[in-house]
Write a structure and sequence with these properties.
This protein is of the alpha/beta class and 470 residues long. The protein folds into four domains: 125 residues, Resolvase, N-terminal catalytic domain (Rossmann fold, 3-Layer(aba) Sandwich), CATH 3.40.50.1390; 123 residues, Putative Large Serine Recombinase, Chain B, Domain 2 (Hect, E3 ligase catalytic domain fold); 130 residues, no CATH class; 53 residues. The protein has 15 helices and 13 strands. The longest helix is centred in the N-terminal third of the chain and has 34 residues. The chain is elongated, with a radius of gyration of 31 Å. This is Recombinase family protein. One of its GO terms (molecular function) is DNA strand exchange activity. Keywords: Coiled coil.
Length: 470
């Protein structure tokens, strides 16, 4: 006799398909012992039969018009009566390794199958009730189970299974948040995790931007417990980042206006051009973008920056990057010489303070949005804005006192800055040097093309307005 095998597992927590492999192996042994031939195997892994989600392989099984069906247990094939009636319509026998033979061609066989399915449906409904009760209990406990540990099927990035912070991953994740607030990208965050030797907990594979993004968007990192995708209250574990930082990063990663390599890039791609999105056209005030000059054969000859609006400002990118990096480092050297003896510049965690300010600014925008939606009263809006402004002023005073707003410990190390500006082949380390440009330059304006190369020699294509030293 020829049979088709169907196997299913509702939840494959580890993603290794061991459960369905075991079912298939035992079904094959069952068929071999009876001299049956297995014509095809249908596998639905990590799919529940009671949630209403379509089971692709189950649908394919029905469409294949099998002569007989073999499963590990009937509840692997059927959990609701609607599916049973569709199988009955096939008018074939169903064999279950753990439950015996169901002759669906007879009234008695169909009655037994309907009874088994009814009890399976009952079991599924009761399980759902128990799970909802357990979830409500975890909500009241801030996400903890009866054992006092979070209900996490696998260890999330930054945490241990008991809810404590992972000594390596938590600081790294915190740094990724800070870098995103400072204009970094998801690609840079992935590379940073790779440098730290951090891989995914489930598969042990390197992180990707597509897998890192949902982790950063998870409120768990801010100590917020979720139930059915909704925030229900503070979690019992310590947050890795403050809620304001988390909210700000969510706004960045969820902003549809972000553009690769642009001023709103916020994170998906790898920033490759230093002045894209930073420099603006002196005529129309539109940001510039990078493009390639091509010869008559369509071959690339050199890269240049061009106004994305009126297309009037056009300068070679290699020359522009060289001028900007040189002038920026020279300005940093001037600022360094102005520091008083014994200055503590570079000794505070400026990245964290700067990230905090940006997070507070983002929270102010959220308050205004909530007011426009009627969620907050006018008094609540004023109180929230005043609280945020007070904290921003406090942080700004602290930064100013250390003469180091926006300055990491590398900022005053001009040897490092020179190394970033040229790798020996005329290339700038764009991701590392971009924050330096933002820190030093208030604005960079590009003018239209002049007459001949003399303009390039004297730098009249670029007008840089610097911040005052702090």
């Amino acid at each position: 006799m020829e049979v088709c095998i169907y196997v299913r597992l509702s939840y494959d927590l580890r993603g290794n398909e061991l459960g369905v492999e075991r079912q298939e192996r035992e079904c094959r042994e069952y068929a071999q012992a009876r001299g049956w031939t297995v014509s095809e195997v249908f596998i639905d892994n990590d799919l529940s039969a009671t949630t209403g989600v379509e089971r692709p392989e189950f649908e394919r099984l029905l469409a294949s018009k099998p002569t007989a069906i073999l499963c590990w247990h009937l509840d692997r094939l059927l959990r609701v009566s609607g599916d049973l009636e569709r199988v009955i319509a096939l008018n074939v026998n169903v064999y279950a390794k753990e439950a015996g033979w169901f002759d669906l061609s007879t009234p008695a066989g169909r009655a037994v199958a309907r009874t088994v399915t009814a009890w399976s449906t009952y079991e599924g409904e009761q399980k759902a009730i128990r799970q909802k009760a357990a979830h409500r209990q975890r909500v009241d406990a801030g996400g903890l189970t009866a054992t006092g540990r979070p209900w996490w099927p696998t260890r999330p990035l930054g945490f241990n299974l008991d809810g404590t912070h992972h000594e390596i991953e938590a600081p790294a994740l915190r740094q990724v948040y800070a870098d995103l607030l400072n204009g970094g990208t998801l690609a840079a965050g992935v590379r940073y995790l790779e440098q730290c030797g951090i891989v995914t907990a489930r598969s042990g594979r390197p992180w990707k931007a597509s897998s890192l993004r949902p982790v950063l968007l998870n409120a768990r990192n801010a100590g917020i417990y979720l139930y059915n995708g909704e925030e229900v209250g503070p979690a019992a574990w310590e947050p890795i980042v403050e809620e304001e930082v988390f909210r700000a990063v969510v706004r960045i990663l969820s902003n549809p206006a972000r553009r690769l390599n642009g001023e709103n890039s916020g994170g998906f791609g790898h920033r490759t051009n230093l002045l894209t999105g930073l420099a603006k056209c002196s005529k129309c005030d539109h940001t510039v973008r990078a493009a390639w000059r091509r010869n008559a054969k369509g071959e690339r000859t050199y890269k240049f920056y061009q106004c994305g609006g009126c297309h009037g400002a056009t300068v070679p990118s290699e020359w522009a990057d060289s001028v900007v990096t040189r002038k920026v480092i020279e300005r940093v050297e001037e600022w360094r010489d102005m520091l008083p003896q014994g200055s503590t510049a570079g000794t505070v965690d400026v990245d964290a303070l700067k990230a905090r300010v940006k997070a507070l600014e983002s929270s102010k925008e959220e308050l205004v949005e909530d007011r426009s939606l009627g969620i907050l009263s006018r008094e609540q809006l004023r109180a929230g804005l005043a609280k945020a402004d007070t904290e921003i002023a406090k942080i700004t005073d602290e930064l100013t006192a250390h003469v180091s707003e926006g300055d990491g410990p590398w900022f005053w190390d001009t040897e490092t800055l020179w190394a970033w500006s040229d790798d020996g082949e005329g290339n700038v380390d764009v991701e590392k040097f971009t924050p330096v440009v933002k820190r030093v330059c208030k604005s960079i304006a590009m003018t239209g093309p002049g007459k001949g190369k003399k303009d390039l020699l004297y730098g009249t294509h670029l007008v840089i307005d610097f911040f005052e030293p702090r």
